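Reply to dn_fold:

You asked what the input looked like. This is it:
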Amino acid sequence: MQYKFVSSSESNDSVIILFAGWAMDNNPFEGLHRDGYDIVVIWDYRDFTIDWGIVARYREICILAWSMGVYAASMSTHAIDSRITKRIAVNGTLKPVDNRNGIPVRIFLGTADGLCESSLRKFYRRLAAERVDFERFQNHQPQRDIKELADELAAIYPPPLLSNPPVGKWDLAIIGRMDAIFPAVNQWRAWNEAGVPLTVCENAGHLMDMQRIIDRHFVDKQMAAERFGRGRRSYDSAAPVQSDIVSRLHKAMTSCRVTDAIERRGARVLEIGCGTGSLSHRLARHLDSASFELWDIAGNAPEGIEDYPGNRIIFRRCDAETAISAIPSDSLDMIASASTIQWFNSPSRFMRRSMQILGKGGILAFSAFTKGNLAEVEAVTGRSLPMLTAEQWRGIIPAGFDLLHFEEYACDMTFDSSIDVFRHLKATGVNALGRGGDRTDLRRRIDNYQPDLDGKYHITYRPIIIILKKNG
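and this is what came back:
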């Protein structure tokens, strides 16, 4: 396989690996960018070997695989699996040549047998559902040798006899309804049978806007750290919904008797996203002589947390999604978190890792938000986190956890003016949904935010509270 970095900065410790499709190189992807991430494009699947030293310095690796790149990524990333936090498949499957789950065998063989410069041009034309997309692609068309492409097809089907099993733990599959290369119905069947969440883009063809997918599905954690850090002083007074969530979460933990489920004395507790300490103080009061690690991506230890002399408390500023990989298996009694996990690239990977590092009877208790959270803001700004539905949250609970509590609800906040809405978002750090824009752009968004029939300006939070116990 060949590669090229199309975006890089020495300050970034996260990288997005984009596995391109068949007959591609880096040219169609030049200019892709995402704050906080380097981006490297991989292509040429005559074999699936590469020196992964190219990503050795990164703490976090995200995979965005398109078309035949989905198969290539599944066959080649075993060595870096421990640092991968998210995998997104776009218009491809783990069985790229398959009558039910991929490109029908007859069509694939017809492409291979009839490959020439003319047929390649027709293939490129079929990538796009709209002429404007094809014209944009033509301006950055791959420069590949036709013999290379023939060899690439021969290496893909029939599949190699001796190879690692494909990586099947994908977070999301994105399907273009108008895909003329990988039939959409086959993609849907493949990912549905694999239990992978999927989304269907109704008017999209095989070629999709990768920049839009990157912006939508990979969290800018640096910006989140900056804005939550700035909003720390105003957070408690400006975030009544989040405060209520902590109260509900702690009440549910009390009802489930989770402090009795773990050893009351000497418990080993990790809190992720401790923020100003609303949940931290409640846990410290109810767990005597416990060992606490409090993690947050911004700020310092919560004020007053040192007032519990019976407990051993350590604060660490870190990206919890990557730091959790270093915790030994069976080493914790409880993992708790309030209003943080939705900022992770892969909540499902976090839950699987939590299962590993909790001891028998260990508790995972957290709150997050579901799809549709702050829908009013998304309608005006076009920005939101890639959140899961309540059913999808249920679906990613790993086998081995007993579900003690599952609660979803909606909370409406009203404001007297649209500018008050945006002041609230800034004061709580929730404006960390995107960069860019100037005062004119902000003014436009404020003006476009319309009141409801009651004359008030509304935003709707959609929290979810989940408490799990590791069985055994």
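Residues 240-255 form the longest helix (16 residues).
Hope that clears it up.
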